Amino acid sequence: MTEQENTPTIVVLIRDLFFSVKVKNELANAGYEPLLVKREPELLSTVESSNPSLVLLDLNAKPDWDALEPLLSSESGPPVLAFGPHKDVEARRTAQAAGVTRVVTNQQLHKSLHEYVGRYAAESPSGQS
Known about the structure:
Blueprint: H1 3-6, E1 9-13, H2 17-29, E2 33-37, H3 40-50, E3 54-58, H4 65-72, E4 80-84, H5 89-98, E5 102-105, H6 106-123
Helix pairs in contact: 3-4
């Protein structure tokens, strides 16, 4: 196996260019291979092909929860961590109802990205070392 094959992958649905650079750099610096996508079909195909340790969903991207149902209902799929504005309570409630593993605010993600990734990627079946 190559080093890249041993690197745990995290798939990120995010459309904000500036925030995506920050997330990508932080994940890479923490030893993960970040795969950034902008739409649900790309997210689903990337998850299927990469077997990620974790999926991050930006609630500002207005995810199509119906399209994400196969990912969210999968018993063997990776944990899904959603993040969004603290004022958008409705989006956070919708994400929880859709079945994401955890919902946090943007501020919480900025402050504790390494902790969340370490915790939820470690819980993933594909995140085992």
